[in-house]
Every structure is written in C-alpha cells, then in structure tokens.
Amino acid sequence: MGDHIAPKIQSIGEGLNQIMNGTEAAWAIETGWRYMFGSEMVPAGLFAILICFVPETPRYLASIGQDEKAEGILAKINGTDKAKSILKEIKETMTVRTEPLMTYGWLCIFVGIMLSVFQQAVGINAVLYFAPRIYEAMGFDNPMVLTVFNGIVNLGFTCVAIFTVEKLGRKPLLIVGSLGMALGAMGVAMTFGNEDLTLWCMVSLMVYSASFMFSWGPICWVLIAEVFPNTIRGGAVAIAVAFQWIFNWIVSTSFVPMANSLGYWFVYGMYGVICVIAALFVWRLVPETKGKTLEDMTRLWKKVK
Question: How far is Cα 123 from Cα 113, in angstroms, rounded to an integer?
C-alpha cells in the first residue's frame, strides 16, 4: 500500500512546485484534474455523515403529529416560551397548504426573482470561472498561485457571513457587500492595463470577490428561503432559482466575448454599476427577515399587498 501512496504524494508535491513556479499547465492537464475531482470526496463524505445529525424541521414534525419534538427544536432556537406560540402559528397555517403564486402580489415574487438575478448579474462568476485568465491578463506570471490565494480569501470572508448574519441581519450585509463589490469592480476598471497599478488592480479584484463572499454569496440563499410566505414558497423558490441559473449562464458566457471586444475596464465598470443598483434595490425593496418566521412574512406581504 505504501508503494502506491508514495508516488501519489510525490506527484502532488511536484504539482505544487509547478504551481508556485507558474509552470503548472502540463501537470494540471495530465494529473492535477484527477486530484481535483478526488478531493471532492472529502466534503461530500463529511456532508453525508453530518446530515444524519440534522433534525427534521418543526413544520414537518408538526405535520406528522410529533408536536413535542417540533416544540423541542423550536425551544433550542427561540426559547421555551416563544416556541409554544411559534408552534401554534405553524399549526394554524398548516390548514392552508398552498395558495396561487400571486396571492401576495407581484412585488413578493419580483423581490425573490431579483435577489437571484442580482446575485449573478454582479458578475462574480467572471472571477470564479476565469480567475487564472484574468490574473494572466493583468500581467502576473503566476496566475494559479493568485487564484488559490483568492480562494482562501473567499473562504475566510464566507465565514464572516456565517458568524454575523444573525447579529447584523441580512440587509446590512447585502448593502455593504454590494458597495464593497462596486468599489472593487470600479478599482479593476480604472487600473486594468496600467502596469504601474497592477498590484492595485489585483487587490481591487480580491476586494470585489471577498465582498461577494460575505454578502450575496451565502445570504441570497438564506433570503430566498425566508422571504416568501409558506403557502407559495415551493413555487416561488423554484422560479427564483430558475432565474439564478439563467443569469449564471448569461454572465459566464458573455464575460469573455465582452472582455475581448470591449475591454476589461468596460466589463468591470458595468459590474460596478450593477452592484450599486443592487444595493439600492436591497435598501428600498427587500424586507429584513432576521428573527422572523414564515408566518411573520405572510403577514408582512399581506400588508404590502
């Protein structure tokens, strides 16, 4: 067994050396992609194990008559006293399982759709999909090293969202993240192609990416799950996610042609403008869902309607 593992470890070591030296292309094509796919077994395996310890939702437990378990889960989240009132609300709304999609007006659906649209239209996949190409176009000799570093930065700022979303709320993080992305995108637009400002261009791109990771990246999914009333949530979430994939495709297929024909300055300038519009959209139209139940959202949209 050791005879089989040693060459693999040596191959990984050679690959890392080539990445650090900026000569990784041949290794990545021949060997590196195998390790990339193999490494995905680790998080997938952890997910499979940890999901076994995730409790059922209180709504599901209430729907099958296990009220005590439902109340116990709610008590862990909201406290014993509030758990009873929340469970009562859940049981009351369970009598109406579904309603027509437009029951709460067009604005409710529009907000959910536009959350998905903006998550992609701000252009993040232009970085996630094409980072090595972008860093190479900036003039760096080791684009893969910068891509790896960018990934580490992204992971760190995703953790910022994890630890602050319940303290600060959804809207503040989305607004700050949008403005941070706008600043980073405009920085890329103004410095791209200027050899004297290459470092600032790289930093701007990372600010842009990091700002997405503590805001639109994770929080958009949280909001889409929370913002719709329970009786239309299934259909509304499906429509919102469909728009997300449509605009994912639009951004990922349009970036390279636009960058080649119009220039990186134009593309990132456009993304910067979209980020500002996204911040205004969240500020004016998106309701804060922090601390609110799905029943609270039902009452909110009834008032707005």
Answer: 17
Q: Is 3 exposed, middle or buried (0-12, 13-18, 19+ CB in 10 A)?
A: exposed
- d(CA 231, CA 55) in angstroms, rounded, equals 22
Amino acid 283: pLDDT: 96
* CA gap 230, 239 in Å, rounded: 15
Name the more confident of 96 and 192.
192
**Residue of 251, 244, 257, 263 lying closest to 126 (CA atoms):** 251
Q: Which amino acid is at 18?
A: Q
Cα 71 to Cα 62: distance, rounded to the nearest angstrom: 9
**30-34, 91-95, 153-157: which has the highest mean pLDDT?**
153-157
Per the structure block, which two tokens stand in for 162? Answer: 């994890």
Distance CA 147, CA 20 (A): 11
- 185: how many CB neighbours lie within 10 A of its CB? 29
Of the candidates 153, 173, 176, 152, the one whose C-alpha atom is nearest the C-alpha of residue 163 is 173
Burial of 71 by CB count in 10 Å (0-12 exposed, 13-18 middle, 19+ buried)?
Answer: buried
Give CA 50 to chain center in angstroms: 21
Cα–Cα–Cα angle for 220, 221, 224, nearest 5°?
A: 85
Q: How far apart are CA 121 and CA 254, in angstroms?
A: 11
Q: Give the pLDDT confidence of 195-230 residue by residue, as tens digits.
A: 888 899 999 999 999 999 999 999 999 999 899 988
Mean pLDDT within 253-277: 93
